[in-house]
């Protein structure tokens, strides 16, 4: 590949990594629903349902992300700046 093609490919890969749904994150972390269910002490079906939800508690999202080894951070973006919302830090 040419240097330009490599650069475009790297940009596309970075963009794909920057935005994923929960199932994509789980697969990227090389975890099955069964493995994640075991970590969370729930059934595989519960993991499947959680991955499909479009509305959930912050605490549920945090448990899911932490079970995959991550940390959930809630931020809001305005036209001129981004703010980290701190009230969810101690959940």
UniProtKB/TrEMBL annotation:
GO terms for molecular function: DNA binding. SUPFAM superfamilies: lambda repressor-like DNA-binding domains. Residues 22-52 form the HTH cro/C1-type domain. Gene3D superfamilies: lambda repressor-like DNA-binding domains (1.10.260.40). It comes from the Bacteria. InterPro entries: Cro/C1-type_HTH, HigA2-like_HTH, Lambda_DNA-bd_dom_sf. It holds the Pfam family HTH_37. CDD domains: HTH_XRE. This is Helix-turn-helix protein. It comes from Pseudomonas duriflava.
């Amino acid at each position: 590949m040419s240097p330009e093609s490599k650069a475009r490919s790297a940009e596309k890969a970075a963009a794909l990594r920057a935005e994923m749904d929960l199932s994509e994150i789980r697969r990227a972390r090389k975890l099955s629903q069964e493995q994640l269910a075991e970590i969370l002490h729930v059934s595989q079906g519960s993991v499947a349902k959680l991955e499909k939800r479009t509305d959930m508690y912050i605490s549920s999202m945090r448990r899911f992300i932490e079970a995959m080894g991550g940390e959930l951070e809630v931020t809001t973006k305005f036209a001129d700046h981004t703010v980290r919302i701190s009230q969810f830090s101690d959940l």
